[in-house]
Amino acid sequence: MILNSYDEDVQNVNINYSENGTAKQLLITEQMFNDKYLVIQDVDAAQPVTITRDANIQGCIDVVSFEPYELSREEMFINSQLNHHLKEIYGVDIVDRDLVSGIEELYINTDLETLEDLFYFTSLKKVVVGNKRYLDNMFTFDDQYQLVESQNSMFALNQLHELEECELELYNNHFGVLSMLSFAKKMGNPVLPSVTLLDVTDWTITSSTEIEHHDSNVKALLDNDGSTHWLPTQGTEERNHEIVIDMQSTQSVKGFWVRQPKDMMLMMQNAFPRMISIDHSVDNITWSSITIDHDLGRARGETNVIEVDGDPIEARYIKFTVKDNYSFAYVSSLADFMIY
User: Which partner for 134 in 163, 237, 281, 303 could form a disulfide, CB atoms 3.0-4.6 Å apart?
Assistant: First the structure.
């Protein structure tokens, strides 16, 4: 249990529960609130757990006893970032208790406010952080996932490890403070999945924002070389850059490697796209969406792997769209867009 703040107007706070068939009551003291974390052993989870409180009415000497508040096993309040991430992972509109209670391995590839909500995951055996962030070995400290609230998160993980032997695997330096936990396994940099990239010979590639007398080096997007990159002119306002690749014939496409530039100065990372949308077509007229506003990792030289959902698609043309970011001017840049 996490105790947030002590209120001097509250006279008594008691937790009422059952232990081996015997009713128990625990008085929550000011010192317990100061300690913040409370673990009660041998609670019978099948029996009600209630909180009773006596408190002063503000500006009055009278003490009021509140009705017992029963802790519900049905209510679930998951912070918005984790809730959104679970919707993306499992393709659902609503994250409910049935989904959460059935998750045995949780893979986290996003920034999060806190991990204290892991207490809802009653079947959890393993937490893995950053397994889909394929960083260049020279820049493994770039653009790490951040965990805002670390103390509550570490308390939750410690309890899950002690009670359920839940494991923790950390890739690179994501959620770095969690590496202090004795049971955390440092996994290093994940290895790119083995795929067969399509042969780009004779392919053509064009950019909607290409202008005369400036070579953006758009062909570099197809050379599978993180040290070369596409860099259009700077703009005075945000632009959408549409890049169209003509593969010259219909190909079976399973996914994409989207790589950020490797050799640009650190201050130019602001130019790296934050999101990408990808469409496909057989005739360069009618387009179908593959992904919309897919989040991109933005470490130097990082390869983002985007898989086609379901069966491979059949396409001749692939179009991807990225937006400018502001870095002294509006600009965008990418190293590679490879298709497999």
Answer: 303
pTM of the shown model: 0.84
Name the 3-class secondary structure at 80.
helix
Q: Say how far apart CA 257 and CA 222 lie, in whole Å.
A: 10
Secondary structure (DSSP) of 186-221:
EEESPPPPP--PPP-TT-EEEETT--TT----GGGG
Q: pLDDT tens digits, residue range 113-150?
A: 999 999 999 999 999 999 999 999 989 888 899 999 99
Kindly report the CA angle at 19 between 18 and 24, in degrees rounded to 5? 55
pLDDT of residue 264: 64
End-to-end Cα, the chain, rounded Å:
48
Tell the residue number behind the tokens 């985007």, with chain if given.
Answer: 306
Q: What angle do CA 282, 287, 288 make, to 5 degrees?
A: 105
Is 312's pLDDT higher than 80? yes
Strands 167-171 and 184-188: parallel
Q: Is 229 left (phi over 0), alpha (psi -120 to 50) or beta?
A: beta
Closest to 80 in 3D by CA, of 101, 107, 102, 110: 110
Question: How far apart, in whole angstroms, are the C-alpha atoms of residue 181 and residue 183?
Answer: 6
* 105 has a pLDDT exceeding 90: yes
d(CA 179, CA 183): 9
How far apart, in whole angstroms, are the C-alpha atoms of residue 177 and residue 161? 17
Partners of 244 in the β-ladder: 206, 319
Give residue 30's region: left, alpha or beta (phi > 0; psi -120 to 50).
Answer: alpha
Cβ–Cβ under 8 Å, residues 208 and 245: no
